[in-house]
Specification:
- The complex is a heterodimer of chains A (312) and B (253).
- Chain A is of the alpha/beta class.
- Chain A has ten helices and 14 strands.
- Chain A has a six-stranded mixed beta sheet, sandwiched between helices.
- In chain A, a hairpin with a 5-residue loop joins strand 12 and strand 13.
- Chain B has one domain.
- Helix content of chain B is 79%, strand content 2%.
- In chain B, a hairpin with a 2-residue loop joins strand 1 and strand 2.
- In chain B, helix 3 packs antiparallel against helix 5, helix 6 packs parallel to helix 10 and helix 9 crosses helix 10.
- Chain B is globular and about 60 Å long.
- The chains are: A alpha/beta (312), B mainly alpha (253).
- At the A-B interface, helix 2 and helix 3 of A face helix 1 and helix 4 of B.
Chain lengths: 312, 253
């Protein structure tokens, strides 16, 4: 199946000479949740702005549902709903009026049943006649999602939907996203909460300094880059790795009170049994044993860090 | 043309107007009444007639013009500046609407509001003086053309303005003096000869003159010239808006 969004050789240089995007290629499949990860200033928002029509590109091409985002902007934009990062709303408007306006603006005829459905799905129906300024921050953000969904888009861009919101609301947002995904909406999510990407995404793209560093299935990414670390806390202080454990890749922790061993869970032999036998043979006193699965965050930090070193 | 989108913008903007309908109506009514008390009663009692027209009635077209110009510019400027200021412009930029449609929606709403205010002033004035309108169709045509072209100008100001001070700058510094010096309250022929010549460089003179003609059949400059002047102004604004959107100036990065 052809990708629903296809980005090729996309470049963006701002008037002040800052190059925000350097030849970005990215295909997004229909129905998937793609997490776009990157540090601040990486180009996430610029990328979204160009695809949705808020910014002009310098070079390259973007097609949405097969339509060129510039030449066939009407057809392309009709497919997209956008929830921007900033809380941009007209505080004196009523909830239902602003959502209705969004639908009209996207060229869809008035449909009260549809608006009701959207508001109900976001538990905003009871607040429909409230002015936006009377709503809590979480509700306002849901209104922004309702506006983006009012014209029944097939693609939803969520630019840092959970930035600066409390845990409760973040969980609520995730529920909303899951429901949308179940309904077949393609979701592009930018975030710097790795936890969020880990939980929601089918695929992860990492962007840094205007370049896509990697695009991978999340599970595959976790597996291929996922290392596990075994930490053995000791009840005593060592100055060197005991002879029974030497040559097996075990390292002494900085304080001399722990032994650290990294292994690959996918490997045929993890070597853990040998390590534990060695520990026993050395007669070491242990206080604790723990393992740590490297998360997307570790992978992400590693990638961006490598890029910095390459540049240096 | 995405008429649904134009309609959505227009309705949304008109709803904003009707939400503050009392401010929208009361303020022009009060200020018009004040003008009548000062110019009509106090000064007018000493002037009596200008070119055969009772002075109180004579200033009505000028008063309407003054308010319509100010209202058109400020309404349209605020209409587009406000989304820019609070950030909701993202929605306009990401919607499947062309710039033409955005302009029609916003400028249409702003022009409608100033037309309404013009008519309210006319109704208020009718309470104070005996009015005759010789060419009602021409009067309406002048109102429509004026409100649209100055709303276009206001739209440009709204896009250009970087803060609220700049938003008020042009109406305060340009529109008000042009209207006051444009014969809103007197006939150009009452000025010394040199000033009469200078006045001809003031575009508002042509508007007020043509508009007054539609009421009383008398004008400072030929009516055709008035129409031509406003048409030229309209074209200039349209060309400017087209250029602005084409370049994305101050809107799209």
């Amino acid at each position: 199946m052809a990708p629903i969004i296809s980005i090729k050789g996309l470049e963006k240089t701002y008037d002040n000479g800052f190059q925000a995007l350097k030849s970005v290629d990215l295909d997004i499949e229909e129905g998937e949740v793609l997490a776009l990860l990157g540090p601040n200033g990486a180009g996430k928002t610029t990328l979204i702005s160009i695809v949705t029509g808020m910014a002009n590109k310098t070079a390259g091409s973007v097609t949405v549902g097969g339509y060129d985002s510039v030449r066939d902007f009407r057809q392309a934009r009709e497919l997209i709903g956008l929830v921007p990062q900033e809380m941009n709303i007209e505080v004196f408007e009523k909830v239902i009026a602003t959502v209705r306006f969004s639908r009209g603006l996207f060229g869809k005829p008035r449909d009260d049943a549809k608006i009701e459905e959207v508001l109900k799905s976001l538990t905003l129906w009871d607040k429909r006649d409230n002015k936006l300024r009377e709503l809590s921050g979480g509700m306002k953000r849901r209104v922004m999602i309702a506006k983006a969904l009012s014209h029944e888009p097939r693609i939803l861009f969520l630019d840092e939907p959970t930035a600066g919101v409390d845990v409760e609301l973040r969980k609520e947002m995730w529920e909303v996203m899951k429901a949308l995904k179940a309904a077949g909406v393609t979701i592009i999510l930018t975030t710097h909460y790795i936890e969020e990407a880990e939980m929601m995404a089918d695929r992860v793209a990492v962007i840094s300094k205007g370049e896509i560093l990697l695009v991978k299935e999340k599970d595959e990414l976790m597996k291929s880059l996922g290392k596990k670390v075994l930490t053995i806390e000791l009840d005593q202080t060592l100055t060197e790795v005991p002879p029974d454990l030497a040559g097996q890749g075990v390292e002494l922790g900085e304080d001399g009170k722990s032994l650290i061993y990294s292994y690959d869970t996918a490997a045929p032999q993890t070597g853990i049994t040998d390590i534990l036998a060695g520990v026993r043979a050395s007669g070491l006193k242990l206080s604790d044993i723990s393992t740590h699965q490297s998360s997307l965050e570790d992978i992400f930090v590693g990638l961006v860090h490598d890029q910095k070193e390459d540049a240096a | 043309m995405n008429w649904t989108a134009i309609g959505a913008i227009y309705k949304f903007e008109m709803a904003r107007t009707f939400r503050s309908i009392w401010q929208s109506v009361v303020s022009p009514v009060v200020s018009t009444s004040l003008y009548f008390v000062v110019f009509g009663a106090a000064i007018g009692s000493r002037i009596e007639t200008v070119e055969g027209v009772d002075y109180g009635a004579f200033i009505v077209p000028g008063l309407m013009m003054l308010q319509m110009l100010m209202q058109s510019v400020t309404n349209a400027a605020l209409g587009i500046y406000f989304p820019k200021f609070i950030g909701t412009i993202y929605e306009l930029l990401s919607a499947p609407v062309s710039t033409k449609e955005i302009v029609i929606g916003y400028v249409g709403a702003a022009a409608t509001k100033s037309m309404m205010i013009g008519l309210i002033i006319l109704a208020t004035a009718a309470l104070f003086v005996d009015l005759q309108i010789q060419h009602p169709v021409a009067m309406l045509a002048f109102m429509v053309l004026t409100c649209f072209s100055f709303s276009l100008m206001g739209f440009i100001i709204g896009i250009w303005a970087g803060n609220f001070e700049q938003l008020n700058l042009i109406p305060m510094l340009v529109i008000t003096p042009l209207v006051f010096l444009g014969g809103a309250f007197y006939s150009i022929s009452m000025l010394p000869e040199t000033w009469q010549t200078i006045a001809l460089f003031n575009p508002v003179v042509y508007l007020v003159s043509g508009f007054r003609w539609s009421f009383f059949g008398l004008s400072d400059v030929p009516v055709g010239l008035s129409l031509a002047a406003i048409a030229v102004f309209l074209v200039i604004c349209l060309v400017a808006i087209n250029a602005i959107f084409r370049s994305g100036w101050k809107i799209r990065t």
